[in-house]
């Protein structure tokens, strides 16, 4: 038997202001915000199923007294109404006096009927996302209409069943967070090891000789060539694939295979080349090019091919170091979208440690990158498990009960 759907507004605590949008206009002016005091929560504090207790805006105790109706209490569910609309998190215990701003909607539920954690998971599920899209009637919502949100429906099983579902989802959620935390720790190993082995590229801390970047690498520069994109053909690498130190497979873009030969007139990128973004908000981002059979580079990228005096791994982490990044910014030009020319980049000095020391570092990089690939796969599987459980709880088949323990992935 399927559980009946209940409108969210029917589950509100029977108290004035249980469902409430944050203070607008003259109620809370920017000039009334102070550097310390009572925190003001906003969309940056609300991640899916997680409230972040880090604040950058505050009000005085006197102002809090005026806005006490907007206080956040434990078990309040906060939903974003601007930007990433519809994202929800439960206010944790021990939060202390805190208010929410006009970009959040507070939902204070009748806990005799619905668990706040269960309602939060439901709000972050495809079930509510689909309803928000349908109820919006195709209009472009710059902000989430709270009337639409109130009209969304969620399944309402018994409290004991809600608690069982929440327990399963919390296990999977915890697994995702643990995998993510482990991956974050791995990302800190190599920059720390680089600094320990080589010192800062900005100073001759270990008396290494230096050279200009253009003398120890060849530049392959495709800027000025506008690609004709297609759905298949030769892989086109863009700035969106370049993160700070790592290459992201998605998004995947292509150019027609018949146009590939015209791209080769400027040189052929090779696996292990260091790709460097030359402009925009990703200026200075670098990643090593993976092993592709054929690849073309988009306009905002330069491929740096190390010569015999320098290795790709050393070059990558030398460029990533904050001191080198500062020099990139200093030698860039433009206002709205700053960029650096090939000449200015080529003129930047870089220390040259002994090649044997660079190769030792490269061995460490290989080991850490292998570990990181395993951790990425663990995170992917954990996220898939969580999304499957979430979908089954609110859209598809219910999460299995305890008597079917053996079939439960988290059993």
Q: What is the topology, as strand order, of the major beta sheet?
A: 2-10-7-8
Multimerization state: single chain
Please state the average pLDDT score. Answer: 87
For the secondary structure, the number of strands is: 20
**Residue windows where pLDDT falls under 50 for at least 5 positions:** 138-142, 398-411
CATH class of the largest domain: Alpha Beta
Assign the CATH superfamily of the largest domain: DNA methylase specificity domains
Would you tell me which CATH topology of the largest domain applies? Adenine-n6-DNA-methyltransferase TaqI, Chain A, domain 2
The structural class is alpha+beta
The radius of gyration computed from the alpha-carbon positions, rounded to a whole number of angstroms, is 26 Å
Helicity level, as a percent range?
25-40%
Number of helices: 11
CATH architecture of the largest domain: Alpha-Beta Complex
């Amino acid at each position: 038997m399927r559980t009946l759907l209940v409108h969210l507004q029917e589950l509100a605590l029977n108290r004035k202001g249980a469902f409430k949008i944050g203070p607008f206009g003259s109620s809370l002016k920017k000039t009334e915000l102070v550097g310390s005091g009572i925190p003001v929560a906003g969309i940056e504090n609300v991640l899916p199923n997680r409230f972040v207790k880090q604040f950058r805006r505050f009000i005085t105790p006197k102002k809090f007294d005026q806005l006490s109706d907007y206080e956040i209490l434990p078990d309040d569910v906060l939903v974003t109404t601007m930007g990433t609309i519809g994202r929800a998190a439960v206010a944790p215990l021990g939060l202390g006096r805190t208010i929410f701003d006009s970009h959040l909607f507070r939902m204070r539920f009748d806990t005799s009927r619905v668990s706040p954690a269960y309602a939060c998971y439901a709000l972050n599920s495809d079930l509510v996302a689909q309803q928000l899209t349908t109820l919006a009637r195709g209009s472009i919502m710059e902000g989430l209409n709270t009337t639409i949100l109130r009209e969304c429906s969620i399944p309402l099983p018994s409290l004991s069943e809600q608690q069982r579902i929440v327990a399963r989802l919390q296990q999977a959620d915890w697994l995702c967070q643990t995998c993510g935390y482990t991956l974050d720790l791995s990302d800190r190993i190599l920059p720390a090891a680089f600094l320990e082995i080589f010192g800062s590229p900005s100073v001759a801390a270990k008396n290494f000789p230096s050279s200009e970047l253009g003398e120890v690498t060849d530049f392959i520069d495709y800027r000025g060539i506008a690609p004709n994109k297609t759905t298949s053909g030769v892989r086109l690498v863009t700035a969106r694939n370049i993160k700070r130190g790592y290459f992201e497979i998605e998004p995947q873009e292509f150019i027609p295979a018949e146009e590939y030969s015209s791209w080769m007139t400027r040189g052929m990128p090779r696996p292990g080349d260091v790709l460097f973004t030359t402009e925009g908000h990703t200026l200075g981002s670098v990643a090593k090019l993976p092993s592709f059979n054929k690849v073309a580079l988009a306009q905002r990228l330069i491929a740096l091919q190390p010569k015999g005096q320098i290795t790709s791994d050393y070059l990558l982490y030398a460029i990533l170091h904050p001191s080198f990044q500062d020099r990139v910014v200093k030698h860039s030009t433009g206002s709205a979208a700053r960029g650096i020319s090939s000449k200015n980049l080529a003129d930047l000095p870089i220390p040259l440690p002994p090649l044997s020391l660079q190769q030792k570092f490269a061995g460490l990089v290989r080991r850490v990158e292998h570990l990181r690939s395993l951790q990425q796969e663990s995170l992917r599987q954990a996220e898939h498990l969580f999304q499957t459980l979430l979908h089954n709880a609110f859209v598809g088949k219910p999460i299995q009960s305890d008597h079917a323990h053996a079939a439960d992935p988290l059993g």
